[in-house]
Design a protein that fits this description.
Blueprint lengths: L2 H15 L4 E6 L6 H10 L13 H5 L10 E8 L13 E2 L8 H19 L5 E4 L7 H7 L4 E2 L5 E2 L7 E8 L18 H5 L5 E3 L2 E2 L5 H7 L15 E3 L3 H4 L26 H5 L3 H7 L9 H12 L1
Parallel strand pairs: 3-10
Antiparallel strand pairs: 1-2, 2-7, 4-7, 5-6, 8-9
Length: about 300
Amino acid sequence: MTKQLKYAQMIKSEAKRLGFLSCGISKADFLEEEAPRLEKWLKNNMHGEMHYMENHFDKRLDPRKLVEGSKSVVSMLLNYYPENTQEDPEAPRISKYAYGTDYHFVIKDKLKQLLQFIQEEIGEVNGRAFVDSAPVLDKAWAAKSGLGWIGKNANLLSKQVGSFFFIAELVIDLDLVCDTPVTDHCGSCTACIDACPTQAIVEPYVVDGSKCISYFTIELKNEIPQDVRGKFDNWMFGCDVCQDVCPWNRFSKPHNEPLFNPHPDLLSMTKKDWEEITEDVFRKVFKKSAVKRTKFSGLKRNIDFLK
């Protein structure tokens, strides 16, 4: 067995031990196929007011510009599918990924442990951990390393576990045996395209970010445009529609990460509770949650928009 293969296997089994669903490896190289796609997407203003998407174009496409001397991208998936969802069918809805502790903290911690393991077991390896907070095309890397394919809703899909997972990566200067991409299994299915409440999936595999409910409820800082009123399907933070209807998600199993469990009060809040939410309740229920990104005023704006 070569060193590159032995190290790759060691890293994968440690990732599994840390609770990741799966781990795949690809060569740190220029993302040739993604370059024209990203350029076109930005040119068509599909990023709306997410101006940060325009920054670091070259870094987004080449991890060697992020980590000097990088050789491998180690991609990992972490399940967040909850055991239970909100109880009141009339209550404004919150995306499942935001039920528990903000994933950035949870995953960064696991990635640090993995990097430490690599350094202790293998030797001097330099690298950086990324959790969708830097110019890294997570889905492209995960697909390249065989963890799934990018579906018609532009999410990474896996035959084994669906799509309710976070993607993270370590970019390291260690040569490893790489995995191969898997084939696309969307077939002729258009469930996600047909179900999107705001028609944000403008063509198969292309999502206009500026039309997505997640964009309106999280990223957009100004007033939500009136022309989408009544189209939010009761979502107040994020949206799971294109994942909920995806046939591959019938294979989703509940996560086993205690930090992703919701605050005890969250799932039982009624429509009335949400409409009358105070800043104190917001702070208590979302103490460590990703929902804090919208701030109390943002969530209140979203809830009022649903009325």
